[in-house]
Design goal:
The chain is built from no helices and 15 strands. The chain is mostly beta strands. The protein starts with a strand and ends with a strand.
């Protein structure tokens, strides 16, 4: 059920400028092409789904979601098709119930070990269509519940086999870049 949309032309990162849909399990917030340069603020506590797409986000700062009222309810986060090139360590800390993380079609060039701290409930991670050339060993160690990992269509030439060595359980689906020449 739709209960409000505000498109005021403002670029302040406020969820008030987004579409709000009331779902059975909570709110679904959709922000598309609004001009945000940061993750929106004023996200209602009952939000379970946050989609910020086709915008101007260039980074996700450390602890962005920590101590946000809605963070513990969020099960789906999509930052699809922005301009994100920097994801600071522990950026997603506080998203204790997140199941889906979508970072497709950004400008991410490397993945570091501390990037996914606190995401031990995430089951689906989408990193396709970025510019990833390096994935540090241990990067996915924090993702202890991940079943589906998509990193296809990036710019890796070689994937270090230690990247997936410490997975807590086998992946159900793993999409590797068509540009990877070898796994060492």
């Amino acid at each position: 059920m739709w209960f409000g949309t505000v498109h005021s032309g403002q670029t302040e990162p406020s969820a008030d400028n987004c579409t709000h849909d009331k779902e059975e399990l909570g709110l679904k917030i959709t922000c598309v092409s609004i001009g945000f340069t940061e993750i929106p603020e004023n996200v209602p506590d009952k939000t379970v789904w946050l989609y910020v797409a086709q915008d101007q986000l260039t980074m996700v700062r450390a602890y962005t979601f920590y101590q946000q009222g809605y963070a513990s309810n969020l099960t789906f986060l999509s930052l699809y098709s922005n301009k994100i090139s920097v994801i600071e360590d522990a950026s997603f800390y506080g998203l204790v119930n997140l199941k889906y993380l979508v970072l497709q079609s950004n400008n991410i060039s490397s993945l570091r070990r501390e990037m996914f701290v606190g995401l031990d409930q995430v089951e689906h991670v989408y990193l396709e269509r970025n510019f990833i050339t390096v994935i540090a060993p241990g990067t996915f160690d924090w993702l202890t519940s991940v079943n589906y990992l998509w990193i296809g269509t990036n710019r890796m030439k070689t994937l270090d086999s230690r990247v997936l060595l410490n997975q807590q359980r086998p992946l159900k689906q793993f999409s590797l870049s068509r540009f990877v020449d070898s796994v060492k």
